[in-house]
Amino acid sequence: MVNHYETAFVLTPVLSEPQTKEAVEKFENLLTSNGGTILNREEWGLKQLAYPIQGKNSGFYFILQFDAEPAVIATLETEFRRDERIIRFLTTRLDKYAFEYAEKRRNKGKVQPKAEEEA
């Protein structure tokens, strides 16, 4: 059974732009190679952390929304733990209401075509 998931992760701030892109692509490729489908990727950029983590006060924030089998999550989180570029991560399964909200948030800036009125 495929579920909807959202993963937020924070990369260490000492990475260059190509290094951050490579790190994000690594996790996207991990998901797609294991049968997952990436629905959305949000790059929030360099943000201040609420408290120091591993001696760092800031980090690059990313959010991935995807569909995958539950078994893929264990593989993904194992890779997050092994990668020293990741400061923190959190994966949540989205229920139908959270998924609808995420979809609305994703389509917020896009113009939706109006339904034709019936006479």
Helices and strands in order, then pairings?
Layout: E1 3-11, H1 17-33, E2 37-53, E3 56-68, H2 70-82, E4 86-94, H3 96-106
Antiparallel strand pairs: 1-3, 1-4, 2-3
Structure description:
This protein is an alpha+beta fold and 119 residues long. It has one domain (3-106): Alpha-Beta Plaits (2-Layer Sandwich). 34% of the residues lie in helices and 40% in strands. The protein contains three helices and four strands; from the N terminus they run βαββαβα. It has helices spanning 17-33, 70-82, 96-106, and strands at residues 3-11, 37-53, 56-68, 86-94. The chain has a four-stranded antiparallel beta sheet. β2 and β3 (56-68) form a beta hairpin. The longest helix is centred in the first third of the chain and has 17 residues, at 17-33. The mean pLDDT is 88.
Task: State the main characteristics.
119 residues; alpha+beta; Alpha-Beta Plaits; 3 helices; 40% strand; globular
Distance between the termini: 43 Å
Structural class: alpha+beta
The dominant shape is globular
Query: Can you tell me the CATH superfamily?
Result: Ribosomal protein S6/Translation elongation factor EF1B
Strand content: 35-45%
Percent helix, as a range, is 25-40%
| Gyration radius, in Å | 17 Å
- Give the overall pLDDT as a whole number: 88
Q: Mind telling me the CATH class?
A: Alpha Beta
For the record, the CATH architecture stands as 2-Layer Sandwich
Sheet with the most strands, sense and barrel status: 4 strands, antiparallel
Instruction: Please name the CATH topology.
Output: Alpha-Beta Plaits
How many domains, in number, for the residues?
A: 1
- Helix count, DSSP H or I runs of 4 or more residues: 3
Provide the low-confidence segments as ranges.
none
Q: In order across it, which strands form the biggest sheet?
A: 2-3-1-4
How many E-type strands? 4
SSE order, one letter for each helix or strand: EHEEHEH
